[in-house]
Automatic annotation (TrEMBL):
It is an enzyme of class 2 (transferase). Residues 138-203 form the Thiamin pyrophosphokinase thiamin-binding domain. Its EC number is 2.7.6.2. The keyword Kinase applies. This is Thiamine diphosphokinase. GO terms for biological process: thiamine diphosphate biosynthetic process; thiamine metabolic process. It comes from Harryflintia acetispora. The keyword Nucleotide-binding applies. Keywords: ATP-binding, Kinase, Nucleotide-binding, Transferase.
Amino acid sequence: MKRGLIVAAGEGVPPRLLQALADESDLVYAVDGGYRHCQAAGIAPDLLLGDMDSLGIPPEETGVPFERLPCEKDDTDALYAARRLLAQGVERITLACALGGRLDHMLGNLGVLCFLLEQGAAGRIVDSRCCAEAFAPGEHTLKKEGYNLFSLFPLEGACEGVCIQNAKYPLERYRLVMSFPIGVSNEFLLGDARVSFESGKLLAIRLKI
């Protein structure tokens, strides 16, 4: 499976983690000010793209291939980067430095996970404390992998028939809605948790506390 990494301009992640994510990726795209995070981690991205409003220097000075996007457009820079990676045959996309900072940008990046799910690709947002993934109906394993907690949210409308197993707070065929966030702060037990649901789109966030 071909892997891609999008480095956004949100709150940075530790350079060592960003380097590890880059090492496991076939293509690395820096989105606008995300180039500075790449610099701090010693990463030379394959492409710098965006409207360059948060880069801080002319893109020509980076020495990296770049694509300047118009300021007025329908796609966010991160969504455009995701589309471009899919066009390159990438099937699994990680977003880093995509949380914190502006709340609207963070929600937009969660929207990128929805987009990737609809395209049949795997997507995740990773930082030093959490990993966010979007799931389609079916059965899924939430790997513990050093995480302590996990939270579940419906991404569009309600998630029907939600079941949670091997967790402190199990559920059985529950209708999960955003107005009653019962899925927040569940706890892993000894191993991986199992989640299934029948309809909707589900956001799963694993956290280290």
